[in-house]
Each structure stands twice: as structure tokens, then as C-alpha cells.
Write a structure and sequence with these properties.
Helix 1 packs parallel to helix 2. This protein has one domain: STAS domain (Transcription Regulator spoIIAA), CATH 3.30.750. It is globular. Strand 1 (4-10) and strand 2 (13-22) form a beta hairpin. 39% of the residues lie in helices and 32% in strands. The chain has a five-stranded mixed beta sheet. The protein has four helices and five strands. The protein is α/β, with parallel strands linked by helices.
Length: 113
């Protein structure tokens, strides 16, 4: 499945839904996503990985930079990672454990408090 992403912004929250395989072909899309992210005024950004099948090593740098940009002026949460993907990306230092949440619903509820 070809990689794609979608932005959904409401109030001070933005959910970026990733779908498909993050492979070499996804690099340009990730860079474009980064540019769109920089223009956001949201205080909270949630990366939703629920429909990501694979993250190839060749996009680790782009994924790390995307997260760095999100952290500069926003709270970042990573949601919907499958177990294998989560473990692999944590081992490689691409993800931060304290930003990972299990479900989108629980993340949104905790932020409403």
C-alpha cells in the first residue's frame, strides 16, 4: 500500500494519520508533512500509526526529524503503533517511550482534563 498522510485539526489539537508503508518512496511525503507541520498553530500533535504496515530503515531519519519539529512548540503523542513496530523503533532510538500512547481515544480524554 502506498504511503499517505492526513491532517485533522480541531481547536488546539492536530491528528496526523499515517497509512501504508513508510519506505524509500515515502521520503518526499514525510518531508512535505514536515513542512505542513511547521505551519500548524496547534499546541498538541498526535501521530496516528494505526494503519502503518512497515517503517523501513531508510526513512528513520525523516521520521526522527518529523518528531523533532513537532516537539519544538507542541506536545507530541504517538498512537496506534503495532507491538513489533513500536519495539523496533524504540530499540533504534527513533521513538521516545514517554510519548507513546495505546489508543487515540484515551489520549484525547487525558488531554481534555
Amino acid at each position: 500500500m502506498e504511503f499517505e498522510y492526513k491532517f485533522l485539526t480541531k481547536n488546539n489539537f492536530t491528528i496526523i494519520t499515517f497509512k501504508g508503508r513508510m519506505s524509500k518512496e515515502a521520503k518526499d511525503s514525510l518531508l512535505q508533512c514536515q513542512q505542513e507541520l511547521l505551519a500548524l498553530e496547534s499546541k498538541v500533535v498526535i501521530f496516528l500509526f494505526k494503519d502503518v504496515s512497515t517503517v523501513d530503515q531508510v526513512v528513520n531519519r525523516e521520521l526522527a526529524i518529523l518528531q523533532q519539529e513537532a516537539r519544538k512548540s507542541k506536545q507530541l503523542y504517538l498512537v496506534g503503533l503495532n507491538r513489533n513496530l513500536k519495539l523496533m523503533l524504540l530499540e533504534k532510538g527513533i521513538l521516545r517511550q514517554n510519548e507513546i500512547r495505546e489508543s487515540l481515544e484515551d489520549t484525547l480524554k487525558s488531554l481534555e482534563k
